[in-house]
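About this split. The held-out portion is used to measure sequence recovery: a designer receives only the structure tokens and must propose an amino acid at every position. Recovery is the fraction of positions where the proposal matches the reference. Here is one held-out target exactly as it appears in the evaluation file.
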């Protein structure tokens, strides 16, 4: 009588700690250089700033599109996490909204997101998942703030995203990396204008995410 042999469980291969660190250094360096010089910055310059070899960059990211997409997803995930942490720590939806807006400026999200243009796959699963996560979170935070009487009722998620993108760009003629003294000041003025009760009537209607995507 033969005895059935149970195959040994396969080991889950995890990336080495140094490989994870190298990938993080590449993404961080790429984010900085994309903001400073645009998406066409040479990959060898990114490797040099990250302190890794060119082969390490290509081993992690087979082409420029993969690296740009990873950077944009990384930025969107970090801004979403900032709002989630604020909500968990304070339970205050408007505080979470403020944290998201200022984190978006710190991450230069307005400079990075336009890099996903028609030449890139805008419907890539990773990119779509990060974008939907941000949108769901902001819809939840804004809904909770409105229910709590903190947020005026005539603004939508699209309104917020448009203004964050516009105000977090540095003023013309200034150094992008040294415009924070303007950016955060003006973003806070905008946030104060979102508080309820509203002091004025806005023209038009609240902009939804669907309208923003279609524009």
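Reference sequence for scoring:
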């Amino acid at each position: 009588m033969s005895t059935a042999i149970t195959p040994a469980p396969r080991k889950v291969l995890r990336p080495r700690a140094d490989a994870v660190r190298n990938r993080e250094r590449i993404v961080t360096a790429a984010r900085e250089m994309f903001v400073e010089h645009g998406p066409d910055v040479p990959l060898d310059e990114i490797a040099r700033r990250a302190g890794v070899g060119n082969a390490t960059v290509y081993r992690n990211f087979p082409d420029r599109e993969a690296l740009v997409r990873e950077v944009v997803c990384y930025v969107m995930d970090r801004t979403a996490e900032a709002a989630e942490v604020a909500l968990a720590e304070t339970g205050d939806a408007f505080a979470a909204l403020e944290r998201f807006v200022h984190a978006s400026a710190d991450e230069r999200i307005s400079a990075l997101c336009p890099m996903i243009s028609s030449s890139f796959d805008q419907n890539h699963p990773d990119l779509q998942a990060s974008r939907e996560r941000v949108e769901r979170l902001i819809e939840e935070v804004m809904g909770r703030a409105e229910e709590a009487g903190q947020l005026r009722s005539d603004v939508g998620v699209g309104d917020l995203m448009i203004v964050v993108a516009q105000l977090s760009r540095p003023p013309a003629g200034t150094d992008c990396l040294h415009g924070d003294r303007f950016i955060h000041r003006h973003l806070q003025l905008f946030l104060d204008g979102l508080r309820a009760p509203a002091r004025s009537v806005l023209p038009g209607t609240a902009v939804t995410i669907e309208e923003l995507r279609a524009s």
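Annotator remark: The mean pLDDT is 83.
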